[in-house]
Automatic annotation (TrEMBL):
<feature type="domain" description="Glucose-methanol-choline oxidoreductase N-terminal">
    <location>
        <begin position="4"/>
        <end position="282"/>
    </location>
</feature>
<protein>
    <submittedName>
        <fullName>Mycofactocin system GMC family oxidoreductase MftG</fullName>
        <ecNumber>1.-.-.-</ecNumber>
    </submittedName>
</protein>
<dbReference type="Pfam" id="PF05199">
    <property type="entry name" value="GMC_oxred_C"/>
</dbReference>
<feature type="domain" description="Glucose-methanol-choline oxidoreductase C-terminal">
    <location>
        <begin position="333"/>
        <end position="450"/>
    </location>
</feature>
<keyword id="KW-0274">FAD</keyword>
<dbReference type="Pfam" id="PF00732">
    <property type="entry name" value="GMC_oxred_N"/>
</dbReference>
<keyword id="KW-0285">Flavoprotein</keyword>
<dbReference type="InterPro" id="IPR036188">
    <property type="entry name" value="FAD/NAD-bd_sf"/>
</dbReference>
<dbReference type="InterPro" id="IPR000172">
    <property type="entry name" value="GMC_OxRdtase_N"/>
</dbReference>
<comment type="similarity">
    <text>Belongs to the GMC oxidoreductase family.</text>
</comment>
<dbReference type="GO" id="GO:0016614">
    <property type="term" value="F:oxidoreductase activity, acting on CH-OH group of donors"/>
</dbReference>
<feature type="binding site">
    <location>
        <position position="208"/>
    </location>
    <ligand>
        <name>FAD</name>
    </ligand>
</feature>
<feature type="binding site">
    <location>
        <begin position="442"/>
        <end position="443"/>
    </location>
    <ligand>
        <name>FAD</name>
    </ligand>
</feature>
<dbReference type="InterPro" id="IPR012132">
    <property type="entry name" value="GMC_OxRdtase"/>
</dbReference>
<dbReference type="InterPro" id="IPR023978">
    <property type="entry name" value="GMC_oxidoreductase_bact"/>
</dbReference>
<keyword id="KW-0560">Oxidoreductase</keyword>
<dbReference type="GO" id="GO:0050660">
    <property type="term" value="F:flavin adenine dinucleotide binding"/>
</dbReference>
Amino acid sequence: MPNTLVVGAGSAGCVLAARLSDDPAHTVLVLEAGQVWPATADIPAELLDPGHLPVGPESAVLWRYAGNLVRGKLIGGSGAINGSYFIRPPAAGFTDWNSERWTFDALLPFFRGLENDLDHGTDPGHGTDGPIPVVRTTDPTPFSAEFAERCAAAGLREVADLNALDAPDGFGRVPLAISGNRRAGPAITHLYPVLDRPNLTVVGETTVTRLVMTGSRAVGVEWVRGHEHGRTDADRIVLCAGAVESAALLLRSGIGPERQLRALGIPVVRPAPVGAWCTDHPEIGVEFPGPEPATSTVALEYVLEHDDLEFRPYTPVFTPGLRRLGVAHMRPTGAAELTLRSADPTVPAHIDQSRLLTAADRANLRAGVELACELFDLGFGPVDDHWLRANSGTSQHLSGTCRMGPANDEQSVVDELGRVHGIEGLSIADLSVVPVPLTRGPQATVVTLAAAIAACYAV
């Protein structure tokens, strides 16, 4: 029986499993729903190409949900298919976590220890000894270069290092987790280098369907692998299945809102606000005619951080003949909700994003669209609420379905170490636990979160 069973080999699961298995006396089993290739040499080349985003209808490495939400379903999770963006949140982004354990200063040793910043590694607050290579483009595509020029002409500040301590708002080159023009996701940087450890086992194409409970203790999991069904017990279970699947697994196991569980015929183990609040980054793509972006090795080379908005000149072509400048709200005040529609684990969870945009959020996005149009001298009609609703999507950065907080907080599901309130032997270590909107894209945050939680477990 393993000491720790990790559900999900996504970004968080890869880091957590690697860190826990550093102790040769600690056995770790990872169950991953997607494919696990024997070695990095066996991974399809297109999945290692940071300029390729395998998120289309033909992709076989995705979880798919209503509302065009997709998540990575393979070793490495969404970190194996994303744009390699690796920007840290600013210190203020952790203030509302309301925990001394989760301040920027407390997390800085983990940020530094994870990275090998090949551009700014010797600068204050950076690291050079970590497993994650961080680089920035040196030869931007014409669209990215023009974006930077127009930002400068508009009087916006250029920021040499968006991951610098106390980096101000402004535009700059995107820190990227890339090595030799290959995507350097957590599976590549953390899990594959240690797969030969005798105390670490990673099993793919195995979907965990339910937690096995004895009273108020989680003792194991039930799983499906093809036509095979099984159960595996462990001393401790850590969910790293992502903001959707970790929450869905709790709900199917009887941990969640009582009314929802009873309506689905799921016996209630513990009432909890699982899925009652979650968030994402609302985003609008401003498209306009122009030369199609030249082929790039990455999806984003520059961004502008400005008044809780992030402006993204995408290098991939979304619509032939058009450029796309994304405008994302990084601190929305609205919220989404995740629920189950069925106790059947083959039925995807449902995410209701109809209340993700408040009036204040719409006003901020409206200002962002207007600034985007000003930057590129675009004639644009009134940006009203109807247009915003019709054209807004999200950045696919869902978080917060199992919020972190003290036990007396009626909105929290886990404590500051990710331990599920009222349930022994069960923790969560992924974006599910983030209690407030992320102020930057999630990749740097989720690997740091997993490393910090792993360090607590190792004590």
